[in-house]
Write a structure and sequence with these properties.
Elements: E1 3-7, H1 19-38, H2 42-45, H3 49-53, H4 58-65, H5 73-94, H6 96-117, H7 129-142, E2 147-152, H8 153-164, E3 175-178, H9 179-198, H10 207-227, E4 247-252, E5 267-272, H11 286-289
Helix pairs in contact: 1-5, 5-6, 5-7, 6-7, 6-10, 7-10, 9-10
């Protein structure tokens, strides 16, 4: 059974609208339509490793342009789905300009790594997969415990039909899986695919570009976090807030739905590397969380905050 990601964090938890993510989706769709309408070919606009490393100047153009071209509708749809699901939250943390620059950097980095490994290859590469893989790398650093809504692909068609006739819920029928698991499975598949590519069984997919883009995104965000004060794990990121290395708070071990009753086994201490969020629980308060119900689920590391717990009903004490 093929499972696909459908959505990530609730929109109300974001500080910014994902304008850049929307624009990137629109640009990719527009480029796809233009390419097929004008007859652009991968041979002309795709990135050729041998050409780039032999000094063909046109390949410098293709290094960027190829990251916005796709072979077919399924290639485009798959990439845009992943960009939409994972891009909005990364943009929320980085800001619009920062995310746009980050996306381009991951695309360029993926292309350079792919062509460096296959420097003598003349087969053209196209697709936004490398840049989107960089977004996944960033997501793994920023939101490893974030719940991702997963859906069996065979139910997608039924849900779309249900929406058209007005008999389906607005939100697709999904179940939540930790981002760590979703991206971990994706990463394992890319590694397996890259091994197949090395033995000539890659099926025309540039797995190495995916891994290269993922590595670039992962390293960039780690560098921003650790070296330049980028503080995504604070509820209100403040670059001027004093660093509080080693401060511990309580986070959920896995995605927990709203209405869930907590137990001591559901939470664990976590080192909050930057400004501590207000209203957090510390490790010595784990026991007092048992029996409390969650009013909502956060996507930023799922820190357990007082405001996220339901107030006790006075009638229960009678």
């Amino acid at each position: 059974m093929l499972l696909i990601p459908i959505d990530a964090a609730p929109e109300e938890e974001r500080k910014r609208q994902p304008f850049v993510t929307i624009a990137l989706v629109a640009i990719n769709v527009g480029m796809f339509v233009a390419a097929h309408s004008l007859g652009w070919s991968a041979q002309e606009y795709g990135l050729k490793p041998a050409g780039l490393w032999s000094g063909e100047t046109v390949q410098l153009r293709n290094l960027l342009l190829s990251a916005f071209l796709h072979f077919g509708v399924l290639h485009l749809a798959g990439n845009m789905l992943f960009l939409w699901v994972f891009g909005a939250n990364v943009e929320d943390e980085m800001g619009h300009v920062g995310f746009a620059a980050f996306f381009v950097a991951c695309g360029l980095g993926a292309g350079i790594i792919e062509t460096a490994i296959f420097a003598s290859d003349t087969i053209p590469r196209i697709g936004a997969s490398g840049a989107i893989a960089g977004v996944l790398g960033a997501y793994l650093v920023l939101f490893p415990l974030s719940p991702i809504g997963i859906m069996p692909i065979h139910l997608l068609g039924f849900w779309i039909i249900g929406r058209l006739i007005g008999e389906a819920e607005q939100r697709p029928p999904t179940f939540d899986v930790s981002a760590l698991i979703v991206i971990g499975v994706w990463l394992a598949l890319q590694i397996i695919g890259s091994i197949g590519s090395a033995s000539g069984q890659g099926g025309g997919i540039a797995y190495t570009a995916h891994l290269g883009g993922f590595a670039v995104g992962f390293v960039i965000v780690q560098a921003l976090r650790r070296g330049f004060g980028f503080a995504p794990d604070a509820v209100q990121s403040d670059l001027n807030a004093p660093r509080q290395e080693g401060g511990q708070v309580v986070v959920a071990k896995r995605p927990l739905p709203a209405g869930y009753t907590l137990t001591a086994d559901d939470v664990e201490p976590y080192i909050w590397r930057h400004a501590l969020p207000e209203g957090h629980f510390k490790p010595d308060q784990i026991d007092c969380l048992s029996g409390k119900r969650l009013r909502r689920t956060r996507y930023r590391y799922q820190a357990i905050l007082a405001e996220d717990l339901e107030e006790e009903d006075p009638r229960r004490k009678e």
